[in-house]
Amino acid sequence: MALDIFNTRAKKDRLEHGDRLPPGQKLTDGWPVLHYGGIPDIDLATWKFSIVGLVDEEVHFTWDEFIALPQTTLRSDIHCVTHWSKFDNDWTGVHIRDLMSHVGVKAEAKHVMLHSYGGYTTNVPLAELVDDDVIFAHSHNHEPLEKQHGWPLRLVVPKLYFWKSPKWVRGMVFMPDEKPGFWEMYGYHIHGDPWTEERYS
């Protein structure tokens, strides 16, 4: 019965929002809290964001240095692999291209592994990471992120399922080849496109 109700709701949402809602998704007004493990204890005084791997020179930011970068607000929809979607999220933070203006990336770099406080990792193709809609966000809908949603910083990659937008992000490793992150090693799809339902491998 519960599955029938879900399918009916998902079909109704698709009919009303088919141009924005990927297949198999249903809309939520809330924001479900889903993550592996506990919420890490982060001190901004010792927080660091590192960019390493296939770069001309490693780059490291303190929190004050990172937050001093140009600030941008972007609006996007988000889609979780567990079938919920949330429309019209306003994210404020550092646009990926403003961050990348401080980094020299080697030509052989094609993929990026994102690392989070707490040990979580996920992979994103470089071409999809350095794009117009990608932001390292410290605020959601004009309020600081709550801890359970990734404070002080999370990546937002709206074109991919939301597990590709890691909470508590602390750095990037540029790589020549695609490698699986945490959930990808446990059977999630290596890419994660919501529009083609790349949920699991």
Order of helices and strands: HEEEHEEHEEHEEEEH
Number of domains: 1
Strand content: 25-35%
Q: What would you call the shape? A: globular
CATH H-level homologous superfamily name: Oxidoreductase, molybdopterin-binding domain
Q: Could you give the topology of this structure?
A:
Blueprint: H1 2-17, E1 26-27, E2 48-53, E3 59-62, H2 63-67, E4 72-79, E5 84-95, H3 96-100, E6 111-116, E7 121-125, H4 126-129, E8 135-140, E9 143-144, E10 154-156, E11 169-175, H5 182-185
Parallel strand pairs: 1-5, 2-11
Antiparallel strand pairs: 2-3, 4-5, 5-8, 6-7, 6-11, 8-9, 8-10
Question: Which structural traits does this protein have?
Answer:
single chain; 201 residues; alpha+beta; six-stranded mixed sheet; 11 strands; globular
Structure description:
Strands 1, 4, 5, 8, 9 and 10 form a six-stranded mixed β-sheet that branches. The chain has a five-stranded mixed β-sheet with strand order 3-2-11-6-7. By secondary structure, it is an alpha+beta fold. It is 17% helix and 30% strand.
Give the structure's gist in a few sentences.
By secondary structure, this protein is an alpha+beta fold. The protein is 17% helix and 30% strand. It is built from five helices and eleven strands; from the N terminus they run αβββαββαββαββββα.
